[in-house]
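Objective 1.3, modelling of assemblies. Example input:
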Amino acid sequence: GQNIDQPTEMTATEGAIVQINCTYQTSGFNGLFWYQQHAGEAPTFLSYNVLDGLEEKGRFSSFLSRSKGYSYLLLKELQMKDSASYLCAVMDSNYQLIWGAGTKLIIKP
Amino acid sequence: ETGVTQTPRHLVMGMTNKKSLKCEQHLGHNAMYWYKQSAKKPLELMFVYSLEERVENNSVPSRFSPECPNSSHLFLHLHTLQPEDSALYLCASSQAEASSYEQYFGPGTRLTVT
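Predicted structure (tokens):
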């Protein structure tokens, strides 16, 4: 079966750095997405990786290793507004997104 | 209006009621999706419409019936639901041709079945 694993919850301190991991087993691979979802709001797109390596976008970076079925989202200089759930999703061979259950990130002052 | 809109935002219905959820996208996309989001569970893809043709239904119960009259509008018709159908229902849209095109989500309809 297809499976996406990510931690249920993480806590970090304002101004610090946090890394949210995602491992996947899917039938085919056509890219990995990270989305941010604040409580009661719609998920919003953060990043897309299809080749191995690191993609940097401001305070957020996303890494992919296809051979290991592994990705991480790195958040730097954490701000209180970064408190949200972070969803990892993989596009399979049918171009459908397979979603993880999300990681709830709690930022403390 | 911009982006993806959904109405209503909240809905409470009895198990014998019939209701419909509406989604509209203003992004010029040609693919639309219905997802179910339950607490602490992954997003569940329910239906996909690409170029107004349904391409996937993922064995969703027949008490959920989608309708896509054109590329900008998507409906989810609900009838004789069960309490376990209570969840957040999200609509999304994207460009169908490219795998790198992200999906844009609406704010969702919070459904409670009593």
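The interface with chain B takes residues 4, 8, 30-31, 33, 41-45, 48, 50, 87, 89, 91, 94-102 of chain A (CB under 8 Å).
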